[in-house]
Amino acid sequence: MTEAQSTGRPSVSVVIPTRNRPEHVIGAAESVLSQTFPVTELLLVDDASDDPNVVKTLEKLAVQDQRVRVISRETQGGVSAARNTGVRQACGDYLAFLDDDDRWHAEKLAAQIDLLDELGNDCLFVACGLERTSFDGQKIYFNWPHVAGERWISYELFVQSLCAFVQTVLVHRSLLTEDGLFSEDIPVMEDFEWSLRLLQKTRGALVDRPLVFSQELMDGLTVKYHLRAEAIQRILERHAGLLSAYPRALSTLYYEQAKSLTMTGKRLPALKKLWSAWRNNPTDPRIYGMLLPAMLGHKAFMFARAIYRLFVKNPIKHINGTVG
User: Fold this and answer.
1) 69 and 133 share a domain?
2) Strands (E), the chain
3) Residue 126 CB partners (closer than 8 Å, separation 6+)
4) How far apart are CA 196 and CA 207, in angstroms?
5) What is the span of the domain harbouring residue 230?
6) Which residues, 6+ apart, have CB-to-CB distance to 55 below 8 Å?
7) Neighbours of 140 (CB within 10 A)
8) In 3-state terms, what secondary structure has residue 224?
9) Structure confidence by residue, pLDDT tens digits, 198-252
10) How far apart are CA 99 and CA 164, in angstroms?
């Protein structure tokens, strides 16, 4: 019997997918195992790593702590497939996720469990803020959209923001049936698409503090613009009915797709998506700012962004904070 079970509090399973970066998973695992609210199990899912040292590193962690379980996939399926493998084998009442290059604050789970206790059975999904350090050392605070003074995530604002951070979420396993798993055919933004579905089933609560820390990586999927354009297209097709009720969300999706297409040199498709963004929300100033770069190409966009960062750079930037 775990400490959580003996006190009548929920048990928590944590899933960390990893591949080819053994030096990263150690820090991530340590931040999970040192939580002030003890986890029941930590599932380290190796997504068929090319480097044999990855599995060796994971097995060493399992020897050091009996809560660690190593799961090896035979074929590479991507981060969503690895997470789904962990979900299917997890035993906790609640599940949480962490990427191997991120870290948790020691009180991350404790703060979320306390909020669950306070809100009761109405809450099956609780998130927190995330602090990311960019390439140039700028600290950016990402937060789930909510109305000032409220503890609940605003679904309408969330849909419009496109921001979701799976490493901040603690979710009840009852939501993670087959239709609550991650979409394995969406290469990036899979956490937004996943949250889009889950937050239709339940309200999401928020601990309004940055309890997850992330470092922007040059090889991260977020910089692979062709994958982002592809992912947005699949989200648009899969959730057309839902998104039709949120024209601002549609506009933002088309805008982001136009930006990704611009960065991959596809000017005409980028302009078409920018037109779709304008039709859904002609008052969005970003669309007009993107028009010239979309016509001139990705170098123009990179120049405009560099100028923006030069003059607008702040020590700490807040994204998707409170509204109202």
Assistant:
1) yes
2) 12-18, 41-46, 68-72, 94-97, 102-104, 125-133, 139-142, 146-147, 170-172, 204-215, 316-319, 322-323
3) 112, 115, 116, 169, 170, 171, 204, 205, 206, 207
4) 19
5) 224-312
6) 46, 49, 70, 72
7) 17
8) coil
9) 999 999 999 999 999 998 765 544 458 889 999 999 999 999 999 999 999 999 9
10) 14
Full DSSP string of 136-171: TS-EEEE---EETT--BBPHHHHHHH----GGG-EE
User: Phi/psi at 129 (nearest 5 deg)?
Assistant: -80, 165
Q: What are phi and psi of 19, to 5 degrees?
A: -165, 120
In angstroms, the CA 213 to CA 269 distance is 35
The model's confidence at residue 113, banded by pLDDT at 50, 70 and 90, is very high
- Asked if 147 and 119 sit in the same domain, the reply is yes
Give the DSSP per-residue string, 13-51. Answer: EEEEEE-S-HHHHHHHHHHHHT-SS--SEEEEEE---S-
Do residue 111 and residue 166 come from a single domain? yes
Would you state the pLDDT for residue 316?
Answer: 45
At 79, list the tokens.
């981060």
Instruction: Please indicate, yes or no, if residue 321 is contained in any of the structural domains.
Output: no
DSSP 122: G
- The first and second tokens of residue 302, run together, are 């990179």
Q: Which residue has the tokens 């290059």?
A: 101
Q: How far apart are CA 302 and CA 251, in angstroms?
A: 22
Confidence grade of residue 2 (pLDDT, cut at 50, 70, 90): very low
Q: Are residues 176 and 271 in the same domain?
A: no
31 vs 35: CA distance, rounded Å: 7
**Based on the domain organization, do 210 and 274 belong to the same domain?**
no
In terms of domains, do 49 and 196 share one? yes
* Spatial CA neighbour of 232 closest among 218, 222, 220, 217: 222
User: Global pTM?
Assistant: 0.88
Rounded Cα distance, 149 and 4, in Å: 30
